[in-house]
Queue: 3 jobs
Job 1
Amino acid sequence: MNTISLSIQDMLEDREYGLDLTLLAGETGLSHRLHSSRIQKPGLALTGYTEHLHPDRLQVLGNTEISYLEQLPEDQAIRFIANLCSFPVSCFIVTKGLDPPWFLKLEAEKSGIPLLGTSLQSSTFISLITKFLEERLLPTTNIHGVLVDVLGVGVLLLGKSGIGKSECALDLVIRGHRLVADDVVYIKKKVPAALAGQAGAAIQHLMEIRGLGIINIKDLYGVSSIREKKIIDMVIELLEWDSTQEYDRLGIDDQRYTILGVDLPHLKIPVRPGRNLTSIIEVAARNHLLKGMGYHSAREFQEKLLARMEVRPLGDEVE
């Protein structure tokens, strides 16, 4: 798992979320890094009470905070701000297009604390910045495999190199399913406990087929054959057939595969000539959908079998 952080410079340059940020002071602190998606409105910290100040979080100052500073005697306000800036604050952000007091700009510049401004209302900005930080600071990892969308089920195919993952994915695409990523799947943990997979920008829509080379699925089969991202719902691991190995023939006990702390349903499918892996994967996706509706074929079979075993046949007793 990669430990993710974000610099204030990255946040300032973002245009996707409409944060509308501009630099007002403290340019030397743009390299400060954020590790948490939580923000704080300093409130009492502006009065000198810094007991519960979290300097590692973004400090958002709205109309209330700026008005309070402007109404204080200037020497007192300067003292409070100097005290606040003595902490390693990651960044100040002033909302609503307000012009911060000169002493806030001066102390931020002296302390190397970025002071940013936005035209957005505080509530709107806090909503956007929280979403932005949650998205950018989520745990990520990458895994060697293939991710396909089969009937709306995100299926992550695993297995050693050359076992046939890409060929299975190609056959699924031909059947009308959709490719998300081939070879390397980049995975990001979503709140609260979901995993989203996608391909890297350099290999998006591409697939490697041994003997054929690199092919572009989007160009060959159209936009309906690909997806940019997909929530991973289950993991199917392709294994070489081993006659000495005992494979699950009932499927009563659900196995799990853990990625970034999230447990996913895990199936192990042995590979040998004559087995139609594509059909098996498609059926596995259908069966997963049934389980999501509360229907578990294997367990229902077990319950019926146990119920029949409990019934004693007529004439079984001996006088």
Note: The first strand starts at residue 6 and ends at 7.
Job 2
Amino acid sequence: MSRRRHIERLLPELKAYAYAISDRREDGDDLVQDAVARALRAEAPPRRLGEFKPWMFRTIRNLNTDELRKRRVRREYLARETRLSGETSDDPKHERDMHVRAAFATLSSEMQEILTLIDILGLKYDEAACVIDVPRGTVMSRISRARRALRDRIIGGDSDKRSTS
């Protein structure tokens, strides 16, 4: 059976699942639409309906997880930016945040990227490896070096020493 026929046959179930895991019906519709688009673009999707069905459900689930993560990151970023853009404060946390931001800005772009992917956006090592197209071990060593460099800058380590790896 063709991919399109599988999709047509599964559409009611895909919609039901998407509606069940999303907050709003519109979000469920978007999940189904994105999953169908991915299925149609996929180079080698499962051919048999018995394999195609769970593959589509996983696609919808993963798309939903990605969307929830994006929303959480946006909320946290907006809250942090709102807080940091406000008037100066005597709050020690505000001062610490500003110090961390300044230290972060002195890091190499590679270090900023890996810290953003792992520590700010919350990606797993495997996901970050996929994003920057390097092995998982490289991600692990880069995040370790970047965290160490940031920590050194924050606590007053050798701030003139800039690592580029």
Note: The CA atoms of residues 101 and 154 lie 9 Å apart.
Job 3
Amino acid sequence: MIDAIAFKYRTGTPWTDLPEHFGSWKGAHNRLRMWAADGTWEKVFTALLAQADAEGDLDWVVAVDSTIVRAHQHAAGARQKGPRPASLPTMPSDGPAAD
């Protein structure tokens, strides 16, 4: 099951395209969901992290992403101050009627 789950996330394939030698894709998907819901994955990753840290296999590197996200070109003319005033009601002209 773990190999099937790892294959799915490593390749990005849909669950239904999981190779047959991994068994039922439904079984792997359901097992993943059950393990996520009951905290099994957290326990496994915590144990692996503790073991790797104790053995000195981890290099703690912190990276900060400073990516700039620009607004869409149509966002440039957005109104800045409060709601727009309501438009005045349209009234018929007092002038002579056109024939």
Note: Helices lie at 2-11, 25-38, 40-54.
